[in-house]
């Protein structure tokens, strides 16, 4: 493989610290490299040195002759007076770029919703970012350097970008250097991982999952080495105190392969125990959205949505940008009231919201972190153990020295950690997370997930981070065509529904029927949005009547099954919570009902699609 870039003995130093010390590395054609590390350890600085935008204090970076390098940095350097079209394709006429299949695909995948003639200055920050990414990808590059390219992209956009990068170059040609906190994207795209830490860059083979396994093994070996050194020191100390040492056997350390490290690790969550604790804190009633509709001006956001949220449920909300995910969260939290329908909340419900801004931190910006924590409770019990606020903050990766910093002086990632801690310290029994991954590195995300695994509350998450969404939630719902529907297949099923909707000219028509498939959700009336009537003309009269009859039959069975699922939930809530064997039987019965509902939903989709032909 051709060598594209080489870095030798790079040293970078800022007035307060050394960022890199004698770093040597190289990039060959075909390399797809993801760069991970804590915020502030130098990931963006490394990209800057390799791209030539940052001059190292010593060392050098060399490039293959004629190599074309393109970079997307986190800085916005676009001309606010230029139009979207000019920023992306320059002076090319429409027929010129329209002949290029790659250009058409990039424009459709990233900026199809933007006005081609709008000025850059009239766009939001996220829209400007997408335009900058599209302008970069249209060019021909041997090496692409991308710094947080998934910021401001929704799940559809991230999936499209991953597919584009994987198919952009032929085998063993072209290379990628990527910094992102989106771990699904790292795993999907990258074949190598560089970890930036302690002034060095450490290479690993494989994507994010392979990197984690190798890092765990590395840390285990380091811990074993340190334990061995400590044992040796204790032995030396005993010899000095007692004289000649007695003959003793040396400690033996068992070396295991990386996959054996996780062989006996329990499930990340105990759903029965969490539901038991959540039910005890909440009761049976949490939040019910009943026939809810909401519009902003002439724009319909939600239409006739019904959703019953049960105690201890962990739910992810999917949908394209602008579909109404944050609006749905505001209805649940009580910040918004519906135009039609009603929102019913249980008497014991206490909602905690982690929003995309830092609203609650603005009022305490002048206080020190230590002072903020001192105003809260002195201890919190998690999984039978007592934690102080400072210990919880340390568990979230917050260094002790930052306890003396003022809130306004914290970085974005540190503010996010403090924001999450303050949310948890208020002890809500319903937690709403709206894009919690903003300004957070991968280590912090892992710590956040670990803490949320043991927190007994109903959890509702909106995030474009597919890895986090699938990691912390047990079920997913999607907002499609102003309705809410259960997607038993998770993100993959959602993307399939979106693709089918795009083919039929809608935003997700096959998913538009607000149909319940979950244990405690009944997402609206199927008849209101059902596509069953939209394509009846494509069949003969008899066939159409038979298809409609089948759809109606399935819908009646689904309604009955939804009531049985609701009753099963009531039985679980009323059951003796100390009878774990009985709870397990009820859980198994409930899962069978859910599986039956999933099969009915698939049949309903097939029958509805037949009417659309």
Q: If strands are numbered along the chain, what order do they take across the biggest sheet?
A: 5-6-7-3-8-9
Average predicted local confidence, pLDDT: 79
CATH-level-4 superfamily name of the largest domain? P-loop containing nucleotide triphosphate hydrolases
> How many separate domains make up the residues?
3
Largest sheet: 6 strands, mixed
Please report the distance between the alpha carbons of the first and last residues: 49 Å
Which bin fits the share of residues in helices?
A: 40-55%
Description:
Residues 5-223, 287-507 form the ABC transporter domain. Residues 502-556 are annotated as: Disordered. Keywords: ATP-binding, Nucleotide-binding. InterPro entries: AAA+_ATPase (IPR003593), ABC_tran_C (IPR032524), ABC_transporter-like_ATP-bd (IPR003439), ABC_transporter-like_CS (IPR017871), ABCF_ATPase (IPR051309), P-loop_NTPase (IPR027417), Val-tRNA_synth_C_sf (IPR037118). The protein has 613 residues and is α/β, with parallel strands linked by helices. The chain folds into three domains: 3-207, 3-Layer(aba) Sandwich (Rossmann fold), CATH 3.40.50; 208-265; 271-350 and 428-612, Rossmann fold, CATH 3.40.50.300. Helix content is 42%, strand content 20%. The protein is built from 21 helices and 20 strands. It has a six-stranded mixed beta sheet, sandwiched between helices. The chain is globular, with a radius of gyration of 27 Å. The model is unreliable at 237-265 and 507-539 (pLDDT under 50).
């Amino acid at each position: 493989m051709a060598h594209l870039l080489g870095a030798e003995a790079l040293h970078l130093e800022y007035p307060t610290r050394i960022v890199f010390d004698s770093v040597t590395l190289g990039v060959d054609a075909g390399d797809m490299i993801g760069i991970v590390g804590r915020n502030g350890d130098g990931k963006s600085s490394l990209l800057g040195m390799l791209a030539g935008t940052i001059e190292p204090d010593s060392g050098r970076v060399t490039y293959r002759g004629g190599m074309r390098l393109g970079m997307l940095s986190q800085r916005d350097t676009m001309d606010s007076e230029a139009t979207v079209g000019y920023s992306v394709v320059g002076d090319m006429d429409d027929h010129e770029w329209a002949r290029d299949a790659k250009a058409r695909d990039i424009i459709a995948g990233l900026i199809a919703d933007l006005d081609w003639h709008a000025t850059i200055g009239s766009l939001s920050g996220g829209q400007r970012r997408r335009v900058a990414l599209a302008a970069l990808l249209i060019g021909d590059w041997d090496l692409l350097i991308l710094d947080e390219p998934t910021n401001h992209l929704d799940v559809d956009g991230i999936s499209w970008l991953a597919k584009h990068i994987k198919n952009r170059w032929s085998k063993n040609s072209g290379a990628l250097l990527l910094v992102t906190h989106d771990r699904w994207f790292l795993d999907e795209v990258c074949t190598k991982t560089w970890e930036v830490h302690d002034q060095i860059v450490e290479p690993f083979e494989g994507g994010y999952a392979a990197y984690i396994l190798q890092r765990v093994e590395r840390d285990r070996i380091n811990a074993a080495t340190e334990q061995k050194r400590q044992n040796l020191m204790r032995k030396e100390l005993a010899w000095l105190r007692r004289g000649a040492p007695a003959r003793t056997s040396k400690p033996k350390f068992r070396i295991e392969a990386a996959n054996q490290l996780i062989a006996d690790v329990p499930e990340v969550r105990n759903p029965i125990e969490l539901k038991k604790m959540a039910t005890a804190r909440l009761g049976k009633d949490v939040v019910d959205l009943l026939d809810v509709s909401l519009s902003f001006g002439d724009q319909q956001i939600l239409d006739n949505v019904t959703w019953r949220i049960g105690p201890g449920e962990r739910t992810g909300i999917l949908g394209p940008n602008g579909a109404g995910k944050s609006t749905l969260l505001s209805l649940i939290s009580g910040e918004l009231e519906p135009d039609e329908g009603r929102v019913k909340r249980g008497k014991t419900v206490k909602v905690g919201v982690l929003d995309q801004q830092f609203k609650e931190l603005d009022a305490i910006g002048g206080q020190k972190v230590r002072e903020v924590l001192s105003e809260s409770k002195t201890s919190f019990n998690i999984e039978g153990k007592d934690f102080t606020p400072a210990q919880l903050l340390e568990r979230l990766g917050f260094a002790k020295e930052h306890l003396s910093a003022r809130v306004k002086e914290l970085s974005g990632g540190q503010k996010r950690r403090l924001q999450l801690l303050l949310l948890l310290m208020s002890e809500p029994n319903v937690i709403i997370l709206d894009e919690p991954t903003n300004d957070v590195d991968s280590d912090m995300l892992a710590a956040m997930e670990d803490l949320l695994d043991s927190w007994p509350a109903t959890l509702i998450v909106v995030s474009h981070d597919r890895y986090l969404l699938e990691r912390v939630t047990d079920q997913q719902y999607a907002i499609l065509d102003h309705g809410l529907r259960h997607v038993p297949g998770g993100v993959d099923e959602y993307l399939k529904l979106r693709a089918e909707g795009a083919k039929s000219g809608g935003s997700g028509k096959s998913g538009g029927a607000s149909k319940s498939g979950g244990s405690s959700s009944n997402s609206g009336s199927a008849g209101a949005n059902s596509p069953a009537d939209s394509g009846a003309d494509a069949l003969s009269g008899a066939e159409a009547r038979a298809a409609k009859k089948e759809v109606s039959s399935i819908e009646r069975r689904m309604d009955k099954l939804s009531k049985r699922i609701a009753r099963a939930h009531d039985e679980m809530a009323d059951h003796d919570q100390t009878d774990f064997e009985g709870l397990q039987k009820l859980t198994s019965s409930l899962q069978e009902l859910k599986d039956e509902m999933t099969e009915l939903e698939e049949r309903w989709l097939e029958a509805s699609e037949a009417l659309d032909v």
